[in-house]
User: Fold these one by one.
Assistant:
Number 1:
Amino acid sequence: QSSAMIMRGVGIPEYVIQVWLQSLNHLTRTWTVQGLSSSPCSTNNGLPEGDPMSVTAMLTIAYAWIHHVQRQTRNLSPSAFADNWGWSTTEVSQHAPALQATKTMADYLNMIIDWKKSWLWSTHKAHLPSLKRVVKKEAPNEHVPEMLSAMDLGAQLTYRGNARLGKLRDRLHKARIRLQRLGAHKEPLPS
């Protein structure tokens, strides 16, 4: 498994990796639909959520991706959290090698880039045409939207223009409605 190779490369002891791989080999999943459960099915796809060593594997993969992208580019700042990868640069020419390095790493890991969960952003409009061309070349059948602001890892980000509350505004609105409903109840608040 390529994730195990990366874990070895960053110095995780072999016996720890072997125990983890054995546990993955015995992993089963049970599907529950409308209250009915399936028989346990063996699975070998991906890194299971909730598994501490899978968290370690994702961190080492993110670490390896950052170093791979840095070797293929210059003046580019990659950032990663688990499988959420991105970069920023002031040099338009660096988008192409960064995306190519990202695709190479994803292919090596047998990962699929979910273009529907991807977006382009730029603090300067001058970068957008070049960035769009690079993405179109690497993913010709995909539509990757440009975002001026987005919710990423639980935080509302504004890339260009005036700051926006985005989903936070919706959450605050829903909280206000709930508080108004609670205020209208005859029951004491603790109950």
Number 2:
Amino acid sequence: MSFYHAFSLLRHFVLSESSSSRRSDDIYVRNILQVISTGFESGEFTMAASVARTAMLADRRAITVTDLGTGGRSGQKRKICDIAAVSALSQRYGVILSGLVSSEFENETADSGIILELGTSLGISTLYMAAAAPHIRIITVEGCEASLSVAGKNFSEAGFP
């Protein structure tokens, strides 16, 4: 997250006039600010996602895209590297996502937590979340079969079912 975004979030928190709205958002804002301020490091557990992201950025294969979200590109062939460049999280944002997921689910058991992701794409953000909380069940949904098969390959190579 850039310094500007972190500063804007902090400014909103400090300058909000309604104390009742601040109380309801307090725990989430504190969690986000703590993850950002502690400089959550890219550890061994985020390595699989970083490796998959790097591999996708170098993959020149073309797949036929079924676009159910923005429209306009359905049925067109797109290179995996182009999809990864536009839709995959950067390593910095992936590490922040991992930190948020890890801190949110650190006290959860395998039966008590679940993550639902809509729009898997190539599965990079899913890998960041799965690595941060391997004991939590993740359900991820993707409408494009070609993207889903690439994501499935990424999951199996990273060691996640």
